[in-house]
Design a protein that fits this description.
By secondary structure, the protein is α/β, with parallel strands linked by helices. It has eight helices and seven strands, in the order βαβαβαβαβαβαααβ. Keywords: Oxidoreductase.
């Protein structure tokens, strides 16, 4: 897909580490101009500094907290100022680092839903006026196989990702008349430095190895680059008739029909 995205203007929210970072660089490799959002200013500055060496002038970003309502419009204005429009929005916002029980307080439910559902929904709401002016405008959202399968994942995270899945399917129909495609990717067990699977493997190397080899048909972890390539496939103009799609990137773990 080299240079397939030349001239494209891409906003990656949650793009400073792991999957988001791989997505941002994949678009840059494809020729796009990329604006990255992240909460951690130090990580964001480090990422931009590293990537600007390779892709001079095509990468910028801003630090913002998408749990704060005012930050959505600030983010979109900053992205639009750098990109001069938005063709592709990628939401890699969210966190699976949460208590496993479903017996949560109202405050805890609000926290997990804000991180894994509302932030993406409000981002799309704010971005829609920019996207409808773009070229082959589309949105790719990061879900999780936990939102479509019953797994040993935190209940709140599972519910939030299931809501996100339903939201994308509904919004793909609503935004079609505005020429905006909306698709969702459900990563499986993706390993990267600083991620949840690194923590789990460090805690129980043998148990983790046994789990991956027993539940994942490909018998391995996925990488952020695996997910990034799936994002590029859905964001590509070649996928112009694909909207409302749900794509699992999980080495064959999902068994839904």
């Amino acid at each position: 897909m080299t240079n397939e995205f030349t001239g494209k203007k891409v906003l990656v929210a949650g793009g400073t580490g792991g999957i988001g970072k791989a997505i941002a660089e994949a678009f840059l490799v494809g020729g796009a101009r990329v604006f990255v959002q992240g909460r951690n200013l130090q990580k964001l500055e480090k990422l931009i500094s590293e990537l600007d060496v390779k892709y001079k002038g095509n990468i910028s970003g801003t630090s913002s907290n998408l749990l704060i309502a005012e930050d959505f419009s600030k983010l979109l204005d900053a992205a639009n100022n750098f990109l001069d429009g938005i063709d592709v929005l990628v939401s890699a916002i969210g966190s699976g680092k949460f208590k496993k029980t479903g017996l949560l307080t109202q405050e805890e439910w609000s926290q997990v839903m804000d991180q894994n559902f509302y932030s993406t929904a409000l981002l799309l709401n704010t971005a829609a006026p920019f996207l409808e002016k773009g070229l082959d405008s589309n949105v790719v959202v990061m879900g999780s196989i936990a939102g479509i399968e019953r797994l040993n994942a935190p209940v709140g995270y599972t519910v939030a990702k299931a809501a996100l899945h339903a939201y994308v399917r509904a919004m793909s129909a609503e935004l079609a008349s505005r020429k905006i495609r909306v698709n969702i990717i459900h990563p499986g067990n993706i390993y990267f430095e600083g991620g949840r699977w690194e923590e789990i493997q460090d805690e129980d190397p043998a148990g983790t190895k046994n789990y991956i080899e027993s539940v994942v048909p490909q018998r391995r972890f996925g990488s952020p680059e695996d997910v990034a390539q799936a994002v590029l496939a859905l964001a590509s103009p070649k996928s112009s008739f694909i909207t409302g799609a749900s794509l699992e990137v999980d080495g064959g773990q999902s068994v839904s029909f």
